[in-house]
Design goal:
Distance between the termini: 45 Å
Oligomer: single chain
Pfam families: Glycos_trans_3N, Glycos_transf_3
Largest sheet: 7 strands, mixed
CATH class of the largest domain: Alpha Beta
Helix content: 40-55%
CATH superfamily of the largest domain: Nucleoside phosphorylase/phosphoribosyltransferase catalytic domain
Radius of gyration: 20 Å
Organism: Tumidithrix elongata BACA0141
Keywords: Amino-acid biosynthesis, Aromatic amino acid biosynthesis, Glycosyltransferase, Transferase
CATH topology of the largest domain: Pyrimidine Nucleoside Phosphorylase, Chain A, domain 2
Low-confidence stretches: none
GO molecular function, one term: anthranilate phosphoribosyltransferase activity
Shape: globular
Number of helices: 17
Strand content: 5-15%
InterPro entries: Anthranilate_Pribosyl_Tfrase (IPR005940), Glycosyl_Trfase_fam3 (IPR000312), Glycosyl_Trfase_fam3_N_dom (IPR017459), Glycosyl_Trfase_fam3_N_dom_sf (IPR036320), Nuc_phospho_transferase (IPR035902)
Length: 350
């Protein structure tokens, strides 16, 4: 048993009246001890539940991110002057709506915006469809690449994916604890805001509950992150909905701006596409890349256009939507998918 960890656990697990928040340094230490499993299984499980009940603070999230940066695998900068768009969605996947970020990232990469995604396999407790399964069904095999190879693919094609089991095995090692405690631990929030990239980044984080966004903003402020966006997206992801108003925040130049966007204002309102198996979604993506009209096409344009505007490639949202549609209907995004496959094949066929 770790006596050091026991004291940290006592602070977060002592209840409403006597419990205390961890300092940034204590949160970093606790996270390191969990990732390296210096704490016992009983201590790790107890901490996950106690911290969930207490709710992590922005200070604690900042410390936890410090530990992730110290121990986790991150991609080296491809170009010190270029900003990489890092999209952070829940690792435990989707169970109601089809993910849009795979095709949106192809639109972005086609337009010259380097985009980095990250995640793992099916993750408890939701065990929803993860992004990696959709990429696999599309014939894009990120799983076998080293971080150096991910960097090269990102540099050549503007697209990359950090795969938790291979690139951050310490974090993968605590997945069984998440299964056993039966509730999302604060690590689930951490994954939304972690940027596994060592260069200049614009981090986009999904969220569901407003207090979570408040804590995200505080954590970013403490860590000196000045370029980020928060999105109340589909199932807590970074995918903008079409059947309701999208709520988001953008922090740039030291100022935070709250925005609400309605797809109806741009003639893109409709029903968000329902979840399906990875193979079916990959087939839908393939037909969309050929320019075939569908509800999924509308969602791809809505999301792709927004991100083109957010990144600064398009001067306004409408021109971003027009550009996204052009990239899809003229085969540019389809060719980008082919480029990514060929870039990865160089490593996976050796």
């Amino acid at each position: 048993m770790s006596k050091v960890f026991r004291e940290l656990l006592r602070k977060v697990g002592s209840g409403r009246h006597t419990g205390k928040d961890l300092s940034r340094q204590e949160a970093e230490l606790a996270t390191k001890m969990i990732l390296e499993q210096e704490a016992t299984p009983a201590q790790i499980g107890a901490f996950m539940i106690a911290h969930r009940i207490k709710r992590p603070t922005g200070v604690e999230l900042a410390g936890m991110l410090d530990a992730y940066d110290h121990l986790g695998g991150r991609v080296e900068a491809v170009d010190s002057k270029r900003t990489v768009l890092v999209l952070g969605s829940p690792y435990d996947g989707r169970s109601r709506t089809a993910p849009i970020s795979p095709i949106a990232s192809l639109i972005l990469a086609s337009a010259g915006c380097p985009t980095l995604l990250h995640g793992g396999d099916r993750m408890p407790t939701k065990d929803g469809l993860p992004l990696i399964d959709i990429w696999q069904a599309l014939g894009v095999n990120w799983q076998q690449l080293s971080l150096a190879q991910v960097r090269q693919v990102l540099s050549e094609t503007n697209l990359g994916f950090v795969y938790l089991p291979r690139h951050f095995p310490l974090a993968q090692g605590i997945v069984p604890f998440r299964e056993q405690v039966g509730k999302r631990p604060p690590f689930a929030t951490l994954e939304l805001i972690w940027a596994p990239y060592l260069g200049k980044a614009l981090t986009v984080s999904g969220f569901v509950h407003p207090p979570t966004e408040t804590n995200i903003r505080e954590a970013f402020a403490l860590r000196g992150v000045t370029e980020f966006a928060t999105i109340k997206g589909l199932e807590g992801s970074v995918d903008l909905p079409r059947d309701r108003t999208a709520i988001l925040g953008i922090h740039r130049g030291g100022a935070f701006e709250r925005l609400t966007l309605s797809a109806r204002d741009y003639n893109l309102h409709g029903k968000d596409v329902e979840i399906a198996e990875a193979l079916e979604i990959s087939q839908t993506i393939a037909s969309t890349l050929k320019g075939e009209p569908s509800e999924y096409m509308q969602s791809a344009i809505w999301n792709g256009g927004f991100y083109l505007w957010l990144y600064g490639i398009s001067a306004d949202l409408q021109s971003g939507l027009d550009r996204a549609k052009e990239i899809l209907t003229t085969g540019i995004a389809e060719r980008k998918l082919k480029d990514v496959k060929e870039a990865i094949a160089v490593f996976t066929t050796c």
